[in-house]
Description:
Blueprint: E1 2-4, E2 7-13, E3 22-25, E4 30-33, H1 35-47, E5 50-54, H2 64-67, E6 78-79, H3 82-85, E7 89-91, E8 96-105, H4 115-118, H5 122-153, H6 174-184, H7 196-225, H8 236-242, E9 246-247, H9 253-260, H10 266-270, H11 279-291, E10 296-300, H12 301-315, E11 320-322, E12 328-334, E13 336-338, H13 343-357, H14 359-366, H15 378-381, H16 395-422
Parallel strand pairs: 2-5, 9-10
Antiparallel strand pairs: 1-2, 3-4, 6-12, 7-13, 8-10, 8-11, 8-12
Helix pairs in contact: 1-14, 5-6, 5-7
Amino acid sequence: xxxxxxxxxxxxxxxxxxxxxxxxxxxxxxxxxxxxxxxxxxxxxxxxxxxxxxxxxxxxxxxxxxxxxxxxxxxxxxxxxxxxxxxxxxxxxxxxxxxxxxxxxxxxxxxxxxxxxxxxxxxxxxxxxxxxxxxxxxxxxxxxxxxxxxxxxxxxxxxxxxxxxxxxxxxxxxxxxxxxxxxxxxxxxxxxxxxxxxxxxxxxxxxxxxxxxxxxxxxxxxxxxxxxxxxxxxxxxxxxxxxxxxxxxxxxxxxxxxxxxxxxxxxxxxxxxxxxxxxxxxxxxxxxxxxxxxxxxxxxxxxxxxxxxxxxxxxxxxxxxxxxxxxxxxxxxxxxxxxxxxxxxxxxxxxxxxxxxxxxxxxxxxxxxxxxxxxxxxxxxxxxxxxxxxxxxxxxxxxxxxxxxxxxxxxxxxxxxxxxxxxxxxxxxxxxxx
Length: 434
């Protein structure tokens, strides 16, 4: 510390770290601003000290001025590193805790083509198939005694029965199958049942299929109105699977964790795609590239909040998305002092009071207030947003329609081939003599 007008002055290192500290100008005309500057004013006004900032070349370690004796305290809280634990410096009580995460360009609304099948769960689809087979079995059981009776006393297989249909010979006869399927698709059935058991069974099946079809149509309509939002990744494992390049601060805590990660781990899988950058030099360029879908930017959540705050303040839109999980666990950041500095014992109690009163958290979050909207899940942000339907929204319906035409055409070709090739070879029944 130096003395000025009978007042002790503290020299603080000035280092670019959003949103805590932004440094502009030169060493002779230095302008420092940010949320941590307000904390400096509160602490040193309470201690009765003046303070000034020491210019630091951005490419140097922020602790270099402390090691050389040119500064009394680090301007921004830094993570506790090996230099501190080896006894070269001392750290204060932690100023704040933060997590390291990753952000990417914000996902947009997309058409839910799979809505034709996702209207029901797989379990419900299996129940529908089981119910269809059960109905088919029920019809077969009801017609089995009648078919046996006609074969015994009428003696002609293939003779029409009282229900105006051909006598069923197998479980999956054409009449049984198409009658069950036609009711499900709201089509006319080949033969109208006349006996009471068959009419009751088909009435029950008609009610079941009516409910299923009504719910299905409603769900398909809802999925067209509310399309899906696909998140690119939501944890480190998914990020590694995407193969996207990762950018971070050189020699940062995350960078060193990647280098030390054991082979085969999730972090080690991220390392080959790592393209380290200096945020204060290339961050704006990297952010523009990120919006185009090129890199993923890894940083602390506070830095990510500041990016979202800045973009929302300028454009009124949320341009970035942050994953829910963290790349590495919670990290604690503290002010750093030279070894044996008497300033540490004076600053620590004030930091604790600022934390307990909530002032520390309030000052930091006030600087990134506009990021609140962008930190919400993208699904909730688009919940009340209207958009016109695009051609892609109808791809699923078109595929279903084309599939139906293809099946119908295939059935026609099979019937045509059967009539031309197989039917003439079949023995024809003798016509009855009158």
